[in-house]
Design a protein that fits this description.
This protein has one domain: dinb family like domain (Four Helix Bundle (Hemerythrin (Met), subunit A)), CATH 1.20.120. It contains seven helices and two strands. The protein has a two-stranded parallel sheet. The longest helix has 23 residues. The chain is globular. The protein starts with a helix and ends in a 34-residue tail after the last helix. It binds nickel (II) ion. The site of nickel (II) ion (NI) has 5 residues, from helix 7.
Length: 185
């Protein structure tokens, strides 16, 4: 198995780990923000679904153009504070699974020259199709780790031992958020 095969396999596995993690959360804490500047479980999970269209667009661009310029995406800088709270969580989790399967199918068709195609990213000293999707694989677990921290917080209700259907209504944030600090894509 090559390193790109390993990377695609990691991207393929992520929803089966992340989605049940989110579904375990007590509905009472889904949209609770732990502190100013930090996202709720709901926001971390919806963010994972929301970034897929961006990565499809970047892939199209990098395959079509030689060394294109890519502008970073930072939700704290680029989106309204409550953007993710307005999304439906169950719908976002479904989109995460469907778009990820579609992305994996597309990546399996890339050749080694495609994986090496570069771009100029305004936040990084180097960038290629491989770098971009390695970042996406790590990004899944960056946010999954944050979700798990909230799920296991000692002073919050414990997660269900079994997976719950996601039916809780969206709620307003319980504390202010100033942005998703330091997480540019
Ligand atoms: Ni992120």
């Amino acid at each position: 198995m090559t390193s790109t095969d390993q990377l695609v396999a990691a991207l393929e596995r992520a929803p089966a780990i992340v989605v049940p993690l989110v579904r375990q959360a007590d509905p009472a804490v889904l949209t609770r923000r732990p502190a100013p500047g930090e996202w709720s479980i709901h926001e971390n999970a919806c963010h994972l679904a929301e970034v897929h269209p961006l990565f499809f667009r970047r892939l199209d661009l990098m395959l079509a153009e030689a060394n294109p310029v890519i502008r970073s995406y930072d939700p704290g800088r680029d989106d309204p504070d409550d953007a993710l709270l307005k999304l439906d969580l169950a719908d976002a989790l479904r989109r995460f699974e469907i778009d990820r399967a579609r992305l994996v199918a597309r990546l399996r068709r890339l050749g080694s020259e495609d994986w090496a195609r570069p771009a100029r990213h305004d936040e990084y000293n180097s960038y290629s199709v491989f770098t971009m999707f390695r970042h996406l694989a790590l990004h899944d677990f960056h946010h999954a780790y944050r979700i798990e921290e909230l799920l296991l917080r000692k002073d919050w209700p414990a997660p269900s031992p079994r997976v719950l259907p996601v039916t809780a209504p969206n709620r307003p944030p319980e504390v202010c958020r100033t942005g998703e600090s330091g997480d540019r894509t």
